[in-house]
Amino acid sequence: MKADTGRDVTQDGLLDRRVLLSQPRYGYRAGSDAILLAAAVRARPGQTVLDAGAGVGAVSLCLAWRCPDLAIRGLEIQPELAGLAAGNIAANGMSARIGIVAGDIRQPPSEIGQTIFDHTVCNPPFYARGSASPSPDQGKALAHGEGEIPLKDWLAFCLRRTVPGGSITVIHRSDRLPSLLSGLAQGAGDMVIFPLWPRPGRSAKRVIVQARVQGKGPTILHPGLCLHLANGGDTEQAKAVLRQGAPLDLSSPKVL
Length: 256
What we know:
Layout: E1 9-14, E2 19-24, H1 32-39, E3 48-52, H2 58-66, E4 71-76, H3 79-91, E5 98-102, H4 110-113, E6 117-122, H5 138-144, H6 151-160, E7 162-173, H7 177-184, E8 188-197, E9 206-213, E10 220-221, E11 225-226, H8 236-242
Parallel strand pairs: 3-4, 3-6, 4-5, 6-7, 8-10, 8-11
Antiparallel strand pairs: 1-2, 7-9, 8-9
Helix pairs in contact: 1-2, 6-7
């Protein structure tokens, strides 16, 4: 089918179709990363969450499904994706709890730029400018490549928009971990590094990092989550998170 934006879209489902999602057929497509990021947020009823770079609203929708008493606001630079996100929010009956606005983190609209949130979640572009060939699909290129906004600026934006004591949770490539830690250290501490292992014996390609704004505690290396068995099937822990909406526990006794 065609969305109002004129781009081909598909009708998909997350969390065993507990969350329904319309998204572009080509280019960047939301999936397990969005579910895992949402699962890592330790939000309490009545709190507020900012989804920085909200895309079609996948992270916001998964988080709202798991934590029904949150107020979530999303910021998305691509108007087409912001439009799809608004439709997804309405289709899932979550318009009272989630709002999406189109805008740039460099000059966010006042409803975002003049507000601070209890938690911020972010799935920023994975590749540093010039480190990978850009996708011919403009939407995917914007989602995957930093372009004019480097990772440190994404993290600085998250720091500015989160209350002291609140959390920032980011999912990214594991090879960008030094940049993640360096950027978050400009105003946060109590950091937890949560590796996502693709299967036993394989290096982690993704990592979730969570930090507390103005935190002073040590950096924690968590055992993380193994997503797949050696035969390729999902682990029981991954099934619980990706299909049933179970939260991730980022607490760990191991200190770097």
